[in-house]
Amino acid sequence: MDSLTQVALGAAVGGVVLGRRLGRKAVLIGAALGTLPDLDVFLDYGDAVANITEHRGFTHSLFVLTGLGTLMAALSARFSPTRDIAFHHWWLFFVLCLTTHPILDALTTYGTQLWWPLDVAPSAWPIIFIIDPLFTLPLAIGVVVALATGNGRRGPAWGVALSSTYLVFAMGAKGLVETRLEPVLADRGLLDAPRLVQPTPFNTLLWRVTILDGEHHHETLVSVFDGGTRPVFETFDRGAELEPAALASERGQRLDWFAGPFLRYEAREIEGRETLIATDLRLGFPGFHPFSFTLAVRDDGDWRPVETSEILHPHSRADLDALGQLGSRILGPEPALCTSGFVADRWVVDVPAQC
User: Where are the domains of the chain?
Assistant: First the structure.
């Protein structure tokens, strides 16, 4: 999630746990703890693939943060001038302020290494976009009330309750979308295909669905207001013929661990050299994917891994017109919104008649 949300969440959790004892101090300390895991953005691993895949790594590990919270609790119980706060209250305060950050991150698409250092893929159960005002506002308002009144608990408690209720709603909305998808996927023989269902920007009413199908991937948008309208898919090429060459490199394997199988591959001429590029299809939106990486260059007919991967900036960014069309699509299937309208023609394989 964005930094403002994480600050507000940490502050609100701190107020809920120790606001009655510490007042405003609980909120302010919680705010600092809530943003602490994201300090890894200042680490430079010297390589674009490494920087992306190491983010939300060890600083987001539940093991690391629980250990750090336990140490902070022990020091506070021993040295804090507030002697009437027991160790277990300090422990709840520090551990919850720290660990709610990665747990919330894991509810987005990016992927969070909750179980670092275990060798498992990043956790992602996307039910909320990385910026969602309806989740953040109750927390922020609760924190402001606590700071203004000095009552460190009441405002944050209401904020956490309302934001948590919003997450429950998001889970229900996603379940509704997946229920509507089932018969369509069954008809197309795609029930067991890799599937990603995630909210579109800034809301939990309109959902983007991505289905992997061998050399292709299918995309559709489903709104909670679509009623009985069956989802229809647009089909795109994902350059699967280049996947073996990508996976032959260490960086390609790392990306596959991080985002696979939702990757698209292409060969593009960059500075006079044919370059193998991988794009993360999960993040952004069709036509506006922000994360593309150089993996290899072709020498004498063979692909040779690049010495240092680079991130390529997209040719275009989601503009107000595109976001406006998404906003209109939330209200129902008419007018139809086709993601192929934002995608370069070379990637489009098949579109439904209404497009």
Answer: 3-170
